[in-house]
Specification:
Elements: H1 3-6, E1 12-17, H2 25-38, E2 43-48, H3 55-58, H4 68-72, E3 84-85, E4 91-94, H5 108-119, E5 125-130, H6 136-142, E6 149-152, H7 156-178, H8 184-193, H9 202-212, H10 217-226, E7 230-236, H11 243-256, E8 261-267, H12 279-284, H13 289-310, H14 314-320, H15 328-340, H16 351-358, H17 362-371
């Protein structure tokens, strides 16, 4: 396997999602990309609304270009080969413009391949624009994010759809972490098949785990604490009440056990309809001044949060050259390594929990093992 397939190069991945269409995800994705590119960052924006791709039109690209269809159909071997330059310096686009039957629901192996190649993109920031809904593929792409962004509008239906998306994304994260646990995995899978018989909540899962696998409870809390998407409200005006937003944050905290960070609002700018075929121009136009200013505020806040998140870990990761991304096959090899270790390595802890953590935070597992005198080539990039 090529190194580019296994070692992550994108310094930051931001996925923009939400439970409802028409809330402004694509325009926000472009605005964030343009804002970062104009700051001098090397930015790639990927259109992963696989059933209804439209970023190319918003970017003013109308000629036929390579697209994700070429990659999915193996006409192109890498995402680099389908990237196209845009009118904005430092910003490249991975287009999803070409329609292919079944493309909205790619096979599992295709999705895994696409996810691996997205992680391997060489860029300062990769921004992923997702489609609407809570399909597993969409949730898995959202899970690639360092911190995803949920976009909604101050309307009851849109807010509840945003909550459903957040719940689905957390559920999918837990499902991926615990799918190899002999008791919790089947429990979550069964719940997913009977979603109409009762909501999946963090409270429900914690109660179930206390009875069947109490040793994993700390890991469940760890997953929820590390799942901290950003929230952005689109078309917010002074006349709108913040009650709906407060209710959404309250639901997430009390029902899902997660803290959502509301990092900004976007103004309602009717003139944007005149720029739907050239969004970058809108951000430079007088009528787009308030929207562009809101984007700058959001980017500044994201930078401060990212700096706080990374300040205690980035030096250690770089200096030790430890890996933090693996293929599925390598994760399985990693799990077998833990099975082969002496029980003394895990004294005072739980081997099974560390095996599960491999599929959630492999870097933490590596640090734990190295601290206890375990060395293996798979630990290092």
């Amino acid at each position: 396997m090529k190194k580019s397939d296994t070692v992550r190069h994108a310094k930051r991945i931001i996925a923009v999602g939400g439970g409802k269409g028409g809330v402004g995800k694509s325009i926000l994705s472009i605005a964030l990309s343009v804002g970062l590119a104009r700051r001098g960052q090397n930015v790639v924006i990927a259109d992963l609304d696989l059933g209804a791709a439209n970023l190319h039109t918003y970017m003013g690209i109308f000629q036929k270009t390579p697209s994700l269809a070429d990659f999915i159909l193996s006409k192109k071997s890498s995402l680099d080969s389908i990237m196209v330059d845009t009118s904005v310096k430092n910003l490249r686009l991975i287009s999803g413009s070409q329609f292919v039957p079944g493309m909205a629901n790619p096979a599992h192996w295709t999705k895994i391949k696409l996810m691996r190649h997205l992680q391997a993109i060489e860029a300062d920031t990769l921004i992923i624009d997702l489609g609407a809904g809570v399909h597993f593929n969409t949730l898995d792409f959202f899970g690639l994010s360092d911190r995803g962004i949920i976009v909604t509008m101050p309307e009851p239906g849109a807010v509840m759809n945003a909550y459903s998306f957040l719940k689905g994304a957390l559920f999918r994260k837990l499902q991926n972490v615990f799918k190899r646990h002999p008791k919790i995995g089947p429990l979550i899978d069964e719940k997913s098949k009977r979603a109409n018989e009762g909501d999946f909540t963090f409270e429900w899962l914690c109660k179930q785990v206390q009875d069947i696998a109490p040793e994993t409870a700390p890991l469940i809390h760890e997953v929820s604490e590390n799942f901290r998407p950003y929230l952005i409200i689109n078309k917010m005006s002074d006349s709108h009440s913040s009650v709906l937003v407060r209710n959404l944050l309250h639901l997430c905290k009390n029902k899902l056990g997660i803290e959502i960070e509301h990092i900004g609002d976007l103004p309602d700018v009717p003139e944007i309809v005149n720029y739907l075929l050239r969004i970058p121009d809108f951000l430079s136009a007088p009528s787009g001044k308030s929207y562009a200013a809101a984007i700058e505020d959001i980017l500044n806040r994201m930078d401060k949060i990212q700096f706080a998140d990374n300040s205690t870990t980035s030096v250690r990761i770089s200096s030790q050259n430890l890996r933090h991304d693996f293929t599925d096959e390598e994760l399985e090899e990693f799990a077998k390594l833990l099975d082969s270790l002496n029980e003394k390595v895990f004294e005072g802890t739980n081997r099974q929990v560390w095996k599960l953590r491999i599929f959630f935070k492999p870097l933490d597992v590596i640090r734990f093992l190295v601290k206890h005198g375990v060395e293996h080539p798979i630990f290092y990039a």
